[in-house]
Amino acid sequence: SPRRFCLHPELSEDLVGTHPPGAHSLVAVSVGYFLEDFVDMLCNQKLHQSWELLFHHSVVIICFGIAVLLHQYVGFALVALLVEINSIFLHLRQILLMANLVHTTCYRLNSIINLGTYVVFRIATLAWMTRWLFLNRENVPPATYAVGTVGMAIMTPMNIILFYRLLRSDFFK
After folding, report:
1. Does residue 9 have a pLDDT over 70?
2. What is the pTM of this model?
3. How many structural domains is the chain composed of?
C-alpha cells in the first residue's frame, strides 16, 4: 500500500529482498484467499462463466506462492496487491447488478469510481510493475524473470480487455 512506501522507503529501493513486518503474512493470506476463491469457483460456477477469473487466480497463486516460499519478491507482490483496491468497486458493481440497481445514482457513482480506481490501481500499477521488471532484468534470475514476464504478459491484456468491457457496458451502452 502507499502508506507502506512512506513508512518503509527501502521498498522503493529493493522489492526483492526487503519487505516490512507483516508483508509476508499478507501475501501468504492473499494466496490462501485466491486458492479458496479458485476452489469455490470450480465447485459453484460453470467453467465457461469463470475461466478468465480461474486463469487470473492461477497466475496470482503461482507468482505470490513463489514470493511466499522463497521469502523474496514479497515487496513486488505487495505492489501487486494495490490492484485489489479496485476489486472493491468491481464487486460492488456485481452486487448492484444482481440487485437490479443499474439505473440508480449509486450504480452510476460506483461506475465512475470503479473506472477511476481501475486506471490508477490496475492499469498504472501493472504498467509500473512491467517497467520495474524490465529495468531490473539484470538483477532478477532468469527463471523468476520469465515467471514475472509471463505473469505481466497475461495480466495486462486481461485487464485491458476487462477495462474495455466495463467502458462499453457502463458508459457506451
Report:
1. no
2. 0.83
3. 1
- Residues 123-167: tens digit of each pLDDT: 999 999 999 999 999 988 899 899 889 989 988 999 999 999 999
Let me know if residue 154 belongs to a domain: yes
Q: Is 16 domain-assigned?
A: no
Tell me whether residue 123 is in a domain.
yes
The answer to whether residues 54 and 113 touch, using CB atoms and an 8 Å cutoff, is no
Distance (Å, rounded) from C-alpha 170 to C-alpha 173? 7
Return the C-alpha cell found at 21. 513486518
For residues 114-131, one letter each, b for 16 or more C-beta atoms within 10 angstroms of the residue's C-beta and e for the rest, the string is bbebbeebbbebbeebbe
* 16 vs 36: which has the higher pLDDT: 36
In a domain, 2, yes or no: no
Domain that holds residue 80: 22-171
